């Protein structure tokens, strides 16, 4: 069973192994009026600050919520301008009507939405927005690649059952899950497609950070990159769901 504290044990690897979010996503958040300097944002499941950092650079006044102590410590050092609350999204003490924006970057799938959505509704001002996005390695709509075939072979050797809940890139299912309870209504849904070139060590680091991959499997993926010439260009998809507080 994937463990949400997996990331905390890999705090040192996480920040350098995970690619940043695409510029097109940040541009869209700006176009949608979400990155207004001086507005107050809460970034949930902030990790080492991949998204928090950009929100701060955009001029927002940011509080980051992160339950992992090693990640929270790293975040405090990396983004000193952000306030950091070391807690889960379910338990973080958020003052009522104190934020204009809530964000969750590659994190919402860890939350108990039945608890978190009403809490965010309370923490946001009227007219507040919730923006949820995630980087998903391997765009299933892109043509199959030799590396993805090798990845599929590694995964096929597992006997663990697949994770419950919506799949990684099922954007419509997530949009529905975030609308349950009527606390939020989706106002913008978009998927950003992009590519990245990775060498064997990039792949080992990246796959080690995936919560359902073992270090041995990550080594097998790195070996596959070496077999395929030392570098692979792979597809990512980044679904974005923006919701308005009802
Ligand atoms: C894949 S990482 C994403 C981190 C960061 N937002 C980013 O974009 O790189 C998922 C994060 O969610 C955090 N997390 C797990 N369960 C959580 C919960 N219930 N509430 C808040 N954060 C949680 C993990 O500690 C981890 O930092």
Structural class: alpha/beta
What is the count of DSSP helices, taking H or I runs of 4+ residues?
10
Biggest β-sheet strands, sense, barrel: 8 strands, mixed
Q: What is the CATH fold-level name?
A: Rossmann fold
Shape designation: globular
Radius of gyration, whole Å: 18 Å
Summarize model confidence as the mean pLDDT.
93
How much helix is in the residues?
A: 25-40%
Bound molecules: S-adenosylmethionine
- The quaternary state of the protein chains shown equals single chain
The number of distinct structural domains comes to 1
GO molecular function: methyltransferase activity
Pfam families: Methyltransf_11
Protein name: Class I SAM-dependent methyltransferase
Organism: Leifsonia virtsii
Structural summary, described in words:
With 246 residues, the protein is an alpha/beta fold. Helix content is 37%, strand content 26%. The protein has ten helices and eight strands. Helix 2 packs across helix 9, helix 7 (146-156) packs antiparallel against helix 10 and helix 9 (200-209) runs antiparallel to helix 10 (215-227). The mean pLDDT is 93. S-adenosylmethionine (SAM) is lined by residues 4, 7-8, 18, 44-47, 50-51, 65-68, 71, 88-90, 105-107, 110-111. Keywords: Methyltransferase, Transferase. It comes from Leifsonia virtsii.
Give the SSE layout.
Blueprint: H1 6-9, H2 11-17, H3 23-31, E1 40-44, H4 52-57, E2 61-65, H5 69-78, E3 83-85, E4 99-105, H6 113-123, E5 124-133, E6 136-137, H7 146-156, H8 171-179, E7 184-199, H9 200-209, H10 215-227, E8 231-245
Parallel strand pairs: 1-2, 1-4, 2-3, 4-5
Antiparallel strand pairs: 5-8, 6-8, 7-8
Protein name: Class I SAM-dependent methyltransferase
Organism: Leifsonia virtsii
Pfam family, one: Methyltransf_11
